[in-house]
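Fill in residues.
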């Protein structure tokens, strides 16, 4: 357990695993400017509906949470005594940033290929633009649970890609 309150389950991982400090800071600044707020609101609505449909929902897991933007927004907008919020990422730096911002969430440095949860223990599984394992998501998803995946389209950042290739 780190002094910031997160749990590191990858003590032997490379210190540079995940995004760099510059990338994490740039992402946090970009997201704080509100560019993905509408997307986050739409995802939060889906999560709220899924939880409302499950009388005994108790766990939300955000896989590849980075610095915690999406899960923190949901938890702030929908605080609940009955729900446990878990965010995990391979980046120790990202999790450290998340833990400092939202200490009420349980943050984990962990690998998406071996999720540290019991079978059928998550009611909502979220992965926003991150790597994931379908088999692991299916393993931890409860019988009434849902999985929300958000991916970039084929033309995402196409202008930058074209410029880079020029």
């Amino acid at each position: 357990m780190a002094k910031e309150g997160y749990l590191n389950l990858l003590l032997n991982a490379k210190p540079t695993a995940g995004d760099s400090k510059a990338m994490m800071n740039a992402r946090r600044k970009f997201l704080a400017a509100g560019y993905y707020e509408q997307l986050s609101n739409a995802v939060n609505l889906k999560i709220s509906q899924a939880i409302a449909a499950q009388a005994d929902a108790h766990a939300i897991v955000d896989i590849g949470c980075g610095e915690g933007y999406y899960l923190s927004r949901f938890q702030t907008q929908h605080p609940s005594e009955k729900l446990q919020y878990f965010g995990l990422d391979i980046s120790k730096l990202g999790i450290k940033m998340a833990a400092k911002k939202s200490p009420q969430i349980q943050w984990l440095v962990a690998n998406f290929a071996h999720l540290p949860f019991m079978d059928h223990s998550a009611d909502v599984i979220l992965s926003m633009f991150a790597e994931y394992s379908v088999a692991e998501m299916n393993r931890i998803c409860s019988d009434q649970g849902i999985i929300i995946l958000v991916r970039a389209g084929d033309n995402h950042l196409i202008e930058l890609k074209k410029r880079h290739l020029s």
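Strands lie at 7-8, 59-63, 84-89, 106-109, 122-128, 141-150.
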